[in-house]
Design brief:
There is one protein chain. By secondary structure, the chain is α+β, with helices and mostly antiparallel strands. The chain folds into 5 domains: about 5-180 and about 190-245, Bira Bifunctional Protein, Domain 2 (BirA Bifunctional Protein, domain 2), CATH 3.30.930.10; about 250-460, no CATH class; about 480-575, Elongation Factor Tu (Ef-tu), domain 3 (Beta Barrel), CATH 2.40.30; about 580-730, Threonyl-trna Synthetase, Chain A, domain 2 (Threonyl-tRNA Synthetase, Chain A, domain 2, 2-Layer Sandwich); about 780-900, Diaminopimelate Epimerase, Chain A, domain 1, CATH 3.10.310. About 40% of the residues lie in helices and about 25% in strands. Helix 17 crosses helix 18 (about 630-645). The longest helix has about 35 residues, at about 355-390. The protein is globular and about 105 Å long. The relative contact order is 0.05.
């Protein structure tokens, strides 16, 4: 039975039991700041678990999930994954323990044909009800029931003692018995044993309590069922495999890994490495398809880290290959694995096939960037390591481990090398490997934990799966009237202060207010939330932001006057001028996307947006910078669309019908069965819940402010519309007039005058440089005479101030003409940077001292870059603080090489 057949059989089975089959949610949770990714099947049903039933009270899914809690275990064990599918059936106040247990047993034993003798179960130690169902209803043998405690069989784990507050309850797990493990020393081996004999295949969570402060458990009025069964794990059981990576789903991916990466005759990939790449490439493909862009923060950082992990493994294999030239010429290979994921899963998840080219390009870009970083930073790491080794004898063991830990942290966190690469470089020195490495890793881990704790403290992500600070059970969905109205009569349903529900608030308090209906748009889809006021007789609340939890709108404000009470009748009124500015910018993003697709091509897809009252920001997929001509064409096209004064239509359509009309839906958004479609003329049609103008002419002027890179393959345009665009143009015009006034020419002549002045400045600079060159040149004879001579080789070293690199080259040439055997080290300091030049005479090259090699060793130390030929090379850096150390170090390296050449 294939994985696809097992998935289908599960969904069909629960459909026959009256469950609504719900499509997998995106890996990016919508309106949920508690987690970075969707980690469980229950996440998309949080509103239902909180009492907001939406048309069904039974559901079943096969949910895409991504977890990184056990990232280090992936590939090492038989069953850990970052990306996986979770089969689940759910009840929201409908059926409970007996049905959940009975149907789970029926599906495993009858639908999948697993022998009852191979199944064991666990129950929570105090859950007599579940235990009796297993014994009396199912008829399982008493010796195959294991009673476990709060950590293993209560959800969330240890919730009774440690929290968090919220829904919770006992669990019952089903295990598959692979048979006795000969190495197990436990005479009473059961599912509580970790010897590997038992595999947990299904977890049934009975959410029947609400935890209160102090660990008090209050029975919920509506009890829920939440189950989860890993598709990969149950497939391994059905297909007779001990390891999840041996199931049919992974075969195309593993074959591609062997074809493109596992080709070295020197060293083959280990099983761990093959499985780790197979895991990560699935996670990366699905995450990017759902809108995650590899970057240096948040979700993007996780995906970038997975790509780099795969690239590291591939690079280590390449470094052992005989075909060095071939591999060096085309080292970027991880992106070649994308088609294998499409082969394995593209039929079930067509979105990954539709976005395959973008996915491949993003992976390729990240991998190429990392290869460049690795080539540049590994030599620098070796340099700093060697400097530290020289000082180890003067340090205590603790000091040495501390410095090594900081060095690891620097190259891991600041420069982006992986821990495996860093430790491999450090362990090239036996003294480090044997004496200090374990303690250094502990110090590194301590630094990483400190930084992660700092990051978490600044993050919105909550430790709780459910956030009860603003959402009480029974609070109804807010009626949003803001598409047509800017002011409504409303009723105050709830008031929150510091996350706690209160009955009234007074002047000066920062509050969050839930109304029965509102004209305030809540932040969503990149559009900022509305501001305005909530008022009643003698009461004024200034609303500074609006957001929503599920479909409940939360108005954040400051009480400026009076006392506001729950159930009070109020007027809710938005700042209409600000809303209009936002609407102009939002509609402009739709027009901008249409213009980009027309001018650059249909590959352009929205990757994110930000719509405020003063500007818009639009991120889109495109693999190179737009030139001036393209930007002018885009800007002109947008303004042509605006001038055409097209009607902006908004309509609600069933989602499938909307898709058939060609409406665009991007960036991993989650949509309901009925969607709002915003259309402009015959060129723009998008799924969108935001607010828009009624006619493109209302936008006025559109002006692009900037175009930049966001990530590999992702560009960003920032622009202004309406009065904001006019103000920007006026500012630029006034700036130009000021420049014209300073130059004392008409505006039309500014460019010619600036060019003339620049030409004159260059002439003067040249004259000054010649004068300085002549002055310096006259001192060269004395410089050569005073140079240090080692074994007949002159070391001529001097640092100037504000001397350009061309002058340094001329001086180096003269010195080499005057001195038969010399190494010339010249540098120049500027205010914000330094230049370094190394030149050697031909006989010095014969002694093994080459200018380009010296520069390649020195440049990384001062965080610079450079290159050249054996005779002459140069480098530059903005890290002035490190320059003196580097310049002295360069002289030491030259002396060391001279001494070696004479032995």
């Amino acid at each position: 039975m294939t994985v696809n057949e097992i998935r289908k059989k599960f969904l069909d089975f629960f459909a026959s039991k009256g469950h609504s089959i719900i499509a997998s949610d995106s890996l990016i949770p919508k309106d949920d700041d508690t987690v970075l990714f969707t980690t469980a099947g229950m996440q998309q049903f949080k509103p239902q678990f909180l009492g907001h039933i939406k048309g069904f009270n039974r559901a079943a899914t096969s949910q895409k999930c991504l977890r990184t809690d056990d990232l280090d275990m992936v590939g090492k064990t038989d069953f850990h994954h970052t990306f996986f599918e979770m089969l689940g059936n759910f009840s929201f106040g409908d059926y409970f323990k007996e049905e959940a247990i009975s149907w789970a047993w029926e599906f495993l034993t009858k639908e999948l044909g697993i022998g009852q003798d191979k199944l064991w179960v666990s129950v929570y130690k105090d859950d007599k009800e579940a235990e009796q169902i297993w014994l009396n209803k199912i008829g399982i043998s008493p010796e195959k029931i294991v009673r476990l405690g709060d950590h293993s069989n209560f959800w969330p784990a240890d919730a009774k003692e440690k929290g968090p507050n919220g829904p919770c309850g006992p669990c019952s797990e089903i295990f598959y018995d692979y048979g006795p493990n000969p190495e197990c020393k436990n005479d009473n081996c059961n599912p509580a044993c970790d010897c590997g004999r038992f595999s947990e295949v299904w977890n049934l969570v009975f959410t029947q309590f609400e935890r209160k402060d102090g660990g008090e458990l209050i029975p919920l009025p509506n009890k829920n069922i939440d189950t989860g069964m890993g598709l990969e794990r149950i497939s391994a059981v059905v297909q007779g495999k001990r390891n999840n990576f041996e199931i049919d789903l992974f075969m195309p991916i593993l074959a591609a890994i062997d074809k493109f990466i596992n080709v070295s005759d020197k060293r083959k990939l280990t099983r761990y490495e093959r499985y780790r790449i197979a895991d990560h490439i699935r996670a990366v493909v699905f995450a990017i398809a759902d809108g995650v862009i590899p970057s240096n923060e948040g979700r993007g950082y996780v995906i970038k880290k997975l790509i780099i992990d795969m690239a590291d493994i591939a690079l280590n294999i390449q470094s052992k290959s005989d075909d060095r030239q071939s591999l060096e010429s085309n080292p970027v290979i991880i992106f070649r694995l994308v088609p294998s994921v499409l082969e394995a899963m593209g039929d079930i998840y067509p979105e990954i096939s539709q976005k395959s080219s973008d996915i491949s390009e993003l992976i390729k870009g990240v991998e190429a960037s990392y290869i460049k970083v690795r080539k540049e930073r590994v030599p620098a790491l070796r340099r700093e390591r060697d400097e530290l080794v020289e000082r180890l004898g003067r340090l205590s063991a603790r000091e040495a481990a501390d410095e090594l830990g900081r060095l690891i942290f620097k190259y891991r966190d600041t420069f982006g090398l992986t821990l495996s690469v860093i430790t491999a470089v450090l362990e090239e020195v036996d003294e480090i490997k044997d004496k200090y490495m374990d303690e250094a890793i502990e110090r590194f881990n301590s630094l990483m934990r400190s930084q992660q704790e700092k990051s978490r403290s600044l993050s919105k992500i909550s430790a709780s799966v459910f956030d009860y600070s603003l959402l009480d059970l029974g609070l109804p969905k807010t009626e949003f009237l803001g598409y047509k109205m800017s002011r409504t009569a409303s009723t105050v349903l709830k008031i929150f202060v510091n996350g706690k529900s209160v009955n009234e608030v007074e002047k000066g308090e920062d509050v969050k207010i839930a109304l029965d209906k509102t004209p305030f748009y809540a932040e969503s889809g990149g559009q900022l939330g509305d501001t305005g006021c909530i008022s009643a007789e003698g009461v004024m609340v200034r609303v500074y932001d609006t957001h929503k939890i599920d479909e409940i709108f939360i108005h954040c404000g400051i009480v400026e006057k009076g006392c506001l009470k729950v159930n009070e009748q109020v007027h809710a009124e938005i700042d209409i001028d600000r809303r209009m500015a936002i609407m102009r910018n939002h509609t402009a993003t739709h027009i901008l996307q249409a213009a980009l697709r027309e001018i650059l091509g249909a590959h352009v897809k929205q990757q994110g947006s930000y719509v405020a009252e003063d500007r818009l920001r639009f991120d889109f997929s495109h693999h190179k910078q737009l030139n001036t001509e393209q930007l002018c064409l885009v800007e002109r096209k947008v303004n042509e669309y605006i001038i055409a004064t097209e009607t902006v239509t908004k309509e609600y359509l069933p989602i499938e019908e909307a898709k058939h009309t060609g409406a665009l839906a991007f960036f991993g958004e989650r949509y309901s069965d009925v969607v709002r479609v915003v259309s402009i003329g015959n060129y723009s049609k998008e799924f969108c819940g935001g607010t828009h103008v009624d006619n493109t002419g209302q936008i006025g002027l559109f002006k692009i402010i900037s175009e930049t890179a966001v990530a590999q393959g992702i560009r960003r345009i920032e622009a202004k519309t309406g009065f904001g665009a006019l103000d920007f143009v006026n500012f630029e015009e006034n700036l130009l007039k000021k420049v014209a006034s300073i130059l004392k020419v008409p505006v039309d002549d500014v460019v010619d005058r600036v060019n003339y002045q620049l030409k004159r400045i260059r002439t003067l600079e040249k004259d000054v440089a010649e004068l300085r060159f002549s002055a310096i040149k006259s001192s060269l004879d004395n410089l050569i005479k005073s140079a240090e001579v080692i074994n007949g080789l002159h070391i001529i070293k001097v640092c100037f101030n504000d001397v350009d690199i061309i002058t340094l080259r001329r001086l180096a040439d003269i010195i080499r003409q005057k001195c038969d055997s010399a190494v010339v080290l010249l540098a120049s300091r500027f205010k914000f940077e330094v230049s370094l030049l190394v030149a050697v005479s031909e006989d010095v090259i014969d002694r093994g001292i080459k200018a380009n090699e010296l520069i390649s060793e020195i440049a990384p130390i001062m965080n610079g870059s450079g290159g050249g030929r054996p005779q002459l090379a140069q480098a530059g850096s903005k890290d002035i603080a490190k320059f003196d150390k580097v310049f002295n170090k360069l002289e030491d390296i030259v002396k060391e090489k001279i001494n070696k050449s004479n032995k």
